[in-house]
C-alpha cells in the first residue's frame, strides 16, 4: 500500500486553476522531491495532502485512508504526518524544549516524562541537544528550522512533508538543515519534499517530479530527470537553474 495516493487532483482559487489533474503515489520509505518554477503548484500539492488546502476535485489517500472523504477524521490522519514549512512557526515565548514538547502533551496526551525523553532524543537527532533551554530568538534560522523538524519528528510521524524548508535561510545555513533531511532519508523516513535545492534532489531523492503550470510534466529517478530529461520544458527549466553563475571580473 502506497503511503500517499493522489488521483485526478484539481485545485482552483476562484477562476485560477492551480492544480490540473495530478496523479502521484509515494511508496513507504521513498523520498520524492518536487521541483519546478514558482507558481507551478508545488506547495499547493503538498498542502492538499493533509488538507491545509481543500481540493476542488480528485482523491487523496494517506496510508490507505481517504482524506478527501467528507467523513474522514483528518485530525487523526494529521497525527501521522509531520510538516515543515518555509517559516519555522515556533512559539517565541516557549523554549526549544517546550516547543517540541507541547503538541506531544496536548495532542498525543503523553506524560511529561515520556514527552521530555522523546524531545531530548529528537533534539539530539537534529543536533540541538545543547539548545533545549534556548528561546527561538536566540537561535539562527537554521537552528530554528532544525527545531521545527524535531517538533515534527517527536510526534512519531509515518510521513514527513517539507515545503521548501530552506528557502527562508541564509545560504550558509542551508547545509545544516539539508544534512538533517539527508539523515532522515537514510533512516528510511517517507518524505515528500518541495525544494529548489537541485543538488539535494539529485543526491537524496529516489524520484524527482517536475511540475509546471499545475501538471506533472515529467518524473523519474534523479539520474534520468537531471541527466536525460525527456521533455523540452524540463530541459529548459534545468538549463536555467543549473547554469553556472557567471562571476563578473573585478573592476
TrEMBL record:
Family indicated by similarity: Belongs to the ABC transporter superfamily.
Entries under Gene3D superfamilies matching the protein: P-loop containing nucleotide triphosphate hydrolases
Record-linked InterPro entries: AAA+_ATPase, ABC_ATPase_HisP-typ, ABC_transporter-like_ATP-bd, ABC_transporter-like_CS, MetN_ABC_transporter-like, P-loop_NTPase
SUPFAM superfamilies registered for this protein in UniProt: P-loop containing nucleoside triphosphate hydrolases
Family annotation (Pfam families): ABC_tran
Keyword set, alphabetical order: Amino-acid transport, ATP-binding, Cell membrane, Membrane, Nucleotide-binding, Transport
Single GO term (MF): ATPase-coupled polar amino acid-transporter activity
Catalytically driven reaction(s): a polar amino acid(out) + ATP + H2O = a polar amino acid(in) + ADP + phosphate + H(+)
Top-level taxon of the source organism: Bacteria
CDD domains for this protein: ABC_HisP_GlnQ
GO cellular component, one term: plasma membrane
Residues of the ABC transporter domain: 4-238
Record carries keyword Zinc: no
Places the protein is found: Cell membrane
Enzyme class: translocase
Membrane topology category: Peripheral membrane protein
Entry protein name: ABC-type polar-amino-acid transporter
SMART domains associated with the record: AAA
Enzyme Commission (EC) number: 7.4.2.1
Amino acid at each position: 500500500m502506497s503511503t500517499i495516493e493522489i488521483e485526478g487532483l484539481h485545485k482552483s482559487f476562484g477562476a485560477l486553476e492551480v492544480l490540473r489533474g495530478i496523479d502521484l503515489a509515494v511508496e513507504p520509505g521513498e523520498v520524492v522531491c518536487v521541483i519546478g518554477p514558482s507558481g507551478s503548484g508545488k506547495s499547493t500539492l503538498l498542502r492538499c495532502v493533509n488538507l491545509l488546502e481543500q481540493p476542488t476535485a480528485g482523491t487523496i489517500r494517506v496510508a490507505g485512508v481517504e482524506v478527501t472523504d467528507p467523513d474522514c477524521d483528518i485530525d487523526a490522519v494529521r497525527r501521522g504526518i509531520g510538516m515543515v514549512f518555509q517559516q519555522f512557526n515556533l512559539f517565541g515565548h516557549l523554549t526549544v524544549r517546550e516547543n517540541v514538547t507541547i503538541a506531544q502533551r496536548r495532542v498525543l496526551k503523553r506524560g511529561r516524562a515520556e514527552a521530555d525523553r522523546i524531545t531530548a532524543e529528537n533534539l539530539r537527532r537534529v543536533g540541538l541537544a545543547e539548545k533545549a533551554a534556548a528561546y527561538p530568538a536566540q537561535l539562527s534560522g537554521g537552528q530554528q528550522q532544525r527545531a521545527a523538524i524535531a517538533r515534527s519528528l517527536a510526534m512519531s510521524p509515518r510521513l514527513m512533508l517539507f515545503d521548501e524548508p530552506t528557502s527562508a535561510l541564509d545560504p550558509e545555513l542551508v547545509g545544516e538543515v539539508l544534512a538533517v533531511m539527508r539523515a532522515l532519508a537514510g533512516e528510511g523516513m517517507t518524505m515528500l519534499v518541495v525544494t529548489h535545492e537541485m543538488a539535494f534532489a539529485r543526491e537524496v531523492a529516489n524520484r524527482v517530479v517536475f511540475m509546471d503550470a499545475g501538471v506533472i510534466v515529467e518524473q523519474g529517478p534523479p539520474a534520468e530527470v537531471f541527466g536525460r530529461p525527456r521533455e523540452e520544458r524540463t530541459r529548459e527549466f534545468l538549463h536555467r537553474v543549473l547554469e553556472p553563475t557567471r562571476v563578473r571580473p573585478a573592476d
